[in-house]
Automatic annotation (TrEMBL):
The keyword Cell membrane does not apply. CDD domains: RNR_I (cd01679). This is Ribonucleoside-diphosphate reductase. It comes from Enterococcus alcedinis. The gene is nrdE. InterPro entries: NrdE_NrdA_C (IPR013346), RNR_1b_NrdE (IPR026459), RNR_lg_C (IPR000788), RNR_lsu_N (IPR013509), RNR_N (IPR013554), RNR_R1-su_N (IPR008926), Rrm1 (IPR039718). It is an enzyme of class 1 (oxidoreductase). One of its GO terms (cellular component) is ribonucleoside-diphosphate reductase complex. Its EC number is 1.17.4.1. The lineage of its organism: Bacteria, Bacillati, Bacillota, Bacilli, Lactobacillales. GO terms for molecular function: ATP binding; ribonucleoside-diphosphate reductase activity, thioredoxin disulfide as acceptor. Signal peptide: none annotated. Residues 558-580 form the Ribonucleotide reductase large subunit domain. Pfam families: Ribonuc_red_lgC, Ribonuc_red_lgN, RNR_N. Belongs to the ribonucleoside diphosphate reductase large chain family.
Amino acid sequence: MSLKTLKDVTYFKLNNEINRPVNGQIPLHKDQEALVAFFKENVLPNTVTFSSVTEKINYLIEEDYLEEPFIRNYSPEFIESLFDFLAKQNFKFKSFMAAYKFYGQYALKTNDGTKYLETYEDRVAFNALYFADGDEELAMTLAEEMIHQRYQPATPSFLNAGRKRRGELVSCFLIQLTDDMNAIGRGINSALQLSRIGGGVGITLSNLREAGAPIKGYDGAASGVMPVMKLFEDSFSYSNQLGQRQGAGVVYLNVFHPDIISFLSSKKENADEKIRVKTLSLGVIVPDKFYELTRKNQEMYLFSPYSVEKEYGVPFSYVDITKEYDNLVKNPNIRKTKINARDLENEISKLQQESGYPYIVNIDTANRANPVDGKIIMSNLCSEILQVQEPSLVNDVQDFEVMGTDISCNLGSTNIVNLMESPDFGRSVRAMTRALTFVTDASDIAVVPSIQHGNKINHTIGLGAMGLHTFFAKNQMEYGSPESIEFTDIYFMLLNYWTLMESHQIAKEKQETFHNFEKSAYADGSYFESYIKEDYTPTFEKIAELFKGIDIPTAEDWEALAQAVKVDGLYHQNRLAVAPNGSISYINDTSASLHPITRLIEERQEKKIGKIYYPAAHLSNETINYYKSAYDMDMRKVIDVYATAQKHIDQGMSMTLFMRSEIPAGIYEWKTTTKQTTRDLNILRHYAFNKGIKTIYYIRTFTDDAEEIGSNQCESCVI
């Protein structure tokens, strides 16, 4: 028997029985029966066994499954002790879905795919050894964090760490185009290369001249952004890792770009095939001025990037539209067209109802909160990465005359439920920061020099979180309640504090800071002022009890940190970002990211298998009332929770909004009908903007026929 010849298994049937209530009760025990059957029928008979850890590792190296250098950083005795420690932790998967996902997607298999070569403990061990880079104490600490599922590396890192034949450890990439053919050509090549090595690619088209704009030295006019979008879509379709996965990309355009209507139309179901994009994601860059114009129901001007760059001497993305809007309107040298702002706002909402797109990036909000020198101009495939970029200049032979900075994403996540049970919260977060630092230091994307350069000088990472709704339910707090808001505030303050502490320590050890540290709000101390002034002592007795035994930094602690950072600097330009969670949240037995669950028993359609059911983590008679579906919840509660976390996160968060096509009565006071309208989405976007939300990811709509519009189908960038 092998994994390819399995017959008469019972675990799918047992798992499916969860979805059939017995006497009005969910038969959760059936999931545990499915888990036991999965190991008995699938895992145990098909796992290659070895007499010792040393024998296993030697075999994996000799057969080209495992890299040798990282193993040789440690003595055989230490490796044996690490594996022995992991075995003694008595790790157990808590659900059938968790085990099924791990063994199906993450465990190393033989070349013919018939046998497993790894257990969960093995994958944890190889991750710990790889990220610790020879540091035995750190390796043991990371192993402890991961086996207790307090820390979860991003999927590319967790999957590939230590493997001989592997993809990159980083999750996704961001590149910008400037307004010339050389930059476009170089950008398409970069997208091909980045899609080949894995990960989603974000591209901003905002700098490109609009359709009809003049081309110097030619009688013709520019074709605008639409043909460039099609070129990128074809590039991702072609560069798909030999058919193993669909290349994934998102294109961003400023809402004041003259091609914005065509851009949005490209995603409509009835769009002309000449402009329709089927697989590209769309994102819109939204300055504050757009919200002002829509609020006042005024007309808005769209500005030619070509004439703006000619007048201002910098690419369109680097002009502050909100600040310069009136000057741009008055300037006769700027080509412009006029439309109604609310008409465009409604077009955005219509498309979000139909497809879930576009993502929204509140670019001025992001830049106001940005503590480092430079300008944020775009985001990534999942809208949580917000880092400064500098434009490149490419010559006629596709060489860089000016090397700008583009972005690679090095991600990981805390599991909130488990981290709150850590014996040392600060030590845990500091170890996670070290693991992510190894990924950024080891990353070397030479095929795209602007990304290689940006990573080399900025050392960016993105530590996030998953399981917030699970934590709330487990501790009997309603999502969005005052208690839940206070918990979120303190938790993310702690993540911020301890990543800053470790970034400072690493800068001190390496005698190196991120590029332009001296121009940052960290260097002059202004970043720390709000923390020094605010008291984070819990006001609710319940929250105080939850944080019992966890040190909450005082004003004096923040002051001391500020002074230390002034002296030694920080190693990482960016440290925090909350990515979405895919299959890895099931393995961690927790809810995805920070948003509410969508169903008590989640239904997953698996290829070739059919439906698999996943009961919400820690679901019981005590927690069931606190597991309200996101589709039945006021989205302002979700926005409030995310906005609270956002105060402490230097980058962004993948915040999805969940709507029903027929909205239950009583959720929104402005509703006079149950039917979802564009006005609902407009109001929620303005609410999010006013709350300080930097980005909105998908709008997911649950329709009358139980379909979900706008479900995230991209696995390349998720944790």
